[in-house]
Every structure is written in C-alpha cells, then in structure tokens.
Amino acid sequence: MDIKSLTKAEEQIMQILWQLQDGTVKEVIENFKDSKPAYTTVATVLSVLEKKGFVEHRKVGNTKVFTPMVSKTDYTKVQFSSLLRNYFNGSFPKMASFFARENDLDISDLENIMKQAEEEMKQNHDKNE
What we know:
mainly alpha
C-alpha cells in the first residue's frame, strides 16, 4: 500500500484514532485537547481519510465507528523516511547533527541517539533476514 501524507487536520484526527483504536465522530471530538472542532468538520475529515484508505467504518445502529487501517508505526516510518530523503539526502548522521544543533543537545545525548538508531536498524535487519 502506498501511504500518502496527511494534512495537519487529518493527522490530528488520526493521532486521536490511533490512541482510541476506534471511535465515533463524537468520541474523536471529545478527545481534542484545545478547542473542539465542529461535528461536520470531523465527519468530513474522516470521510476524506476513508477515501485515502487510512480508516474504515462499520455501522453500530445509526452510528459510524471508525477504525484506523494504517498503523501509526507504518505512517511514522514513511514520514520519517521522506524527511530523511528530502531534507538530509538520506543521511541519518546529518539529520542527527541538525537536531543536536537545533535542540542544543550535548555529546552524550547525540551518542545515545546514534546508539539507539544503530540498535533499531540492527533489529530491523535481523527481522528481515
């Protein structure tokens, strides 16, 4: 499946659905932390997400219950790979040093990030063999 990027509004709703695992429009609205969007706005965004293949719904009585079809992990992998490829020429060390500068990380923080990334890559490599 080709995972597309989401708009900010779509991503906000997906973050809530990933947390809930499934939910109605009303439940999604209740989980917004700041100002609550209009019911019709959330319903429309969920409809768009369904067309994009990110969610599906089932009917429970007269109510639609939405369930994510794309996992948060899969979406994050695609977005992270795109960020790495498009902004750092595919170089993880370049990206790590950028974030270290921007977030004023010290050398031990940077070493921990690199070590964790190395362990993750090794685990993924071992899984794929």
